[in-house]
Amino acid sequence: MGKVAVATTVVCSVAVCAAAALIVRRRMQSSGKWARVIEILKAFEEDCATPIAKLRQVADAMTVEMHAGLASEGGSKLKMLISYVDNLPSGDETGFFYALDLGGTNFRVMRVLLGGKQDRVVKREFKEESIPPHLMTGKSDELFDFIAEVLAKFVATEGEDFHLPPGKQRELGFTFSFPVKQTSLSSGTLINWTKGFSIEDTVGQDVVGELVKAMERVGLDMRVAALVNDTIGTLAGGRYTNPDVVVAVILGTGTNAAYVERAHAIPKWHGLLPKSGEMVINMEWGNFRSSHLPLTEYDHSLDFESLNPGEQILEKIISGMYLGEILRRVLLKMAEEAAFFGDVVPPKLRIPFIIRTPNMSAMHSDTSPDLKVVGNKLKDILEVPTSSLKMRKVVISLCNIIASRGARLSAAGIYGILKKIGRDASKDGETQKSVIAMDGGLFEHYTQFSEAMKSSLKELLGDEVAESVEVILSNDGSGVGAALLAASHSQYLEPEEDSETSQS
Ligand SMILES: Nc1ncnc2c1ncn2[C@@H]1O[C@H](COP(=O)(O)OP(=O)(O)O)[C@@H](O)[C@H]1O
Ligand SMILES: O=P(O)(O)OC[C@H]1O[C@@H](O)[C@H](O)[C@@H](O)[C@@H]1O
């Protein structure tokens, strides 16, 4: 063979060897990086684990904190706020009432014509608006002017069906989905904002006063007959259709729970004992924290960078505002440490809250064989042009870990409440029916979440007691509930012969 031919052969052989070595090195590198992806996934799964024993510890801690929060002001991270609702709707309520519901994402206005036990809700009209994000961190007047303007426009569309009797003032139930220290059924001061809100000049103010001033500014003559948290409204709305409702839970942008407590079991309550012997408590359970909660590095960094660091710890690991953000944070770590999306981290992946929980649940419920919904969401949201099936399967695993943790902890919280009110066990063979009224877009729309919550609750209760506990979706119970509470505290009600409250 000539020298040139030999040289060419040698060069080609070297090139082939180099290419092979490069492929092997790339393969080894990618297999090394993939091993890191799996390592991150496994560590996350372990840190989020909620075995039944842990759920029982969380439930017990919830019960303990409930006692502490009822014993004294500031006695617990659980605020256990007294609602001044000591009588839930009787079903006899009649008349024409407005309700408005300021939530963490949406703002709803509603009018209801109540027809008493016979006709119940004769007619209901409502309108829902998204809250402009800039109003969540602006000035108090800007937010309340927005609310008053939407309400005034809605009132202007009143039809013949909703005709106010002459000489009567319109009355309103105001549902305010934030922690408020109630000073009466129709007044209360904002303790602090939560979720995506942070408006300094509202804190400490009476939110009914803020609304009334804004209504005056737009020339709307309406009396606020009741101020309630959305969990209280949901409890009232739930009880209206089901007398066994004793607990209400919201799983929406945020999360919270309310329940019917025995008035004598509230040491910090020094008011007149209600005739009913009961008082509805707004737990503000989103602020619950415990060493038993399975918190991860992603939860700690999310909390640290949030608008309310150190607050709402339970809310930040189970509610709709945050689940998608937790998913983003884990994917970002995989991208940075294991080139999950290739050598370049997708710039969009660094934007907080870019993965909304509705998108997470859409990916989680992808049943296509090639997980094309996951692929499309990665493309549309993160601008990741292509993704392999094994990458998409990792995304599904992360959704499952995050949603299962949130759902199972929600069940533990409910179980803790049932233990507090003695509904977690059967007594001499008898088990009182207990109904949990649920509301909130997360519970209503994230099926894997709601199913996991219900099955975990059954697991905690055991088969026998689980027979007597029912979980129902009471959607927009808070709207009807607020209208019902306004009706039962209307200025036009005939005064009761005997006082509603007996001497303590
Ligand atoms: N399809 C969905 N899948 C998962 N979560 C959802 C879905 N739709 C809405 N959500 C969650 O529900 C929240 C809205 O809850 P909702 O109760 O309707 O309003 P608000 O929280 O303002 O009272 C959203 O912030 C979102 O986190
Ligand atoms: O209906 P939303 O907006 O999801 O609110 C649920 C809960 O969100 C929490 O952040 C509030 O402190 C509670 O008061 C509220 O009930």
Automatic annotation (TrEMBL):
Gene Ontology molecular function terms on file: ATP binding; D-glucose binding; fructokinase activity; glucokinase activity
Any one of the GO CC terms: cytosol
Domain Hexokinase N-terminal: 41-240
Location in or out of the cell: Mitochondrion outer membrane
Keyword Mitochondrion listed: yes
Residue stretches making up the Hexokinase C-terminal domain: 247-487
Topology term for the membrane: Single-pass membrane protein
E.C. numbers: 2.7.1.-
Superkingdom, taxonomy of origin: Eukaryota
Family designation: Belongs to the hexokinase family.
Name of this chain's protein: Phosphotransferase
Organism: Capsella rubella
Source taxonomy: Eukaryota, Viridiplantae, Streptophyta, Embryophyta, Tracheophyta
